[in-house]
Amino acid sequence: MTVLMREALGETLRRTRTGQGRTLREVSADARVSLGYLSEVERGQKEASSELLAAICAALEVPVADVMTDVGDALRRVDVAAGRPSIAANTRLVIPPPAELALA
Question: How many domains does the chain have?
Answer without folding.
Answer: 1
